[in-house]
Design a protein that fits this description.
The protein is α+β, with helices and mostly antiparallel strands. It has helices at residues 26-41, 128-141, 152-166, and strands at 46-48, 58-61, 73-83, 87-92, 102-107, 109-115, 121-127. The strands form 2 sheets. Strands 1-2-3-6-7 form a 5-stranded antiparallel beta sheet. It has a two-stranded antiparallel ribbon with strand order 4-5. A hairpin with a 5-residue loop joins strand 6 and strand 7.
């Protein structure tokens, strides 16, 4: 396994729509392992392939490891099938935008379909923090960042921090 470098805002790969994997092979499994190791090393709860410079539709997540038993998850070619109309407002952080918290409103539950590491299709409902994480990571695969969902005033207030990231 390898710890991979995390791409930082405003790298253009973070704004691209990622390409489907259309299946699972040994290379995909190794990538998922490396991404999980990278996510844990960076003390994150999710990591999408664009965040390591790969425009592929894959993300990993573990919402439980900081508070208990690790529960590593891998999502390949994910898509949201359904989402609640009710929204939850939370502050999100992002490994690619360190030090810039984003107050974001998202559906409080989603139904997600993806492939697992065996190439099997899995459909699952997520709520609470897991729903937020799934949507945050899926946004990365679509070239969207949590800062894009901030209200205009909060985004304007965050601009100096974002500009600093662009010059590091």
């Amino acid at each position: 396994m390898s710890i991979l470098p995390i791409v930082l805002y405003p790298d253009p790969v973070l704004r691209r729509t990622a390409e489907p994997l259309n299946g699972v092979d040994a290379e995909t499994r190794q990538l998922a392992e490396d991404m999980l190791e990278t996510m844990y090393d960076a003390t994150g709860r999710g990591l999408a392939a664009p965040q390591i410079g790969l425009s592929k539709r894959l993300f990993v997540m573990d919402c439980d490891w900081k508070s208990g038993t690790p529960n590593p998850r891998v999502f390949i070619d994910p898509e949201i099938l359904s989402a609640s109309e009710s929204l939850a407002i939370n502050t999100e952080g992002c490994l690619s935008i360190p030090g810039v918290p984003a107050l974001v409103a998202r559906p409080d539950w989603v139904i997600l379909r993806s492939l697992d590491l065996d190439g099997l299709e899995v459909t699952e409902m997520f709520s609470g923090f897991e729903a937020i994480a799934v949507q945050h990571e899926l946004d990365h695969l679509n070239g969207r960042l949590c800062i894009d969902l901030m209200d205009p005033g909060a985004r304007a207030a965050a601009e100096p921090l974002l500009e600093r990231l662009g010059h590091e």
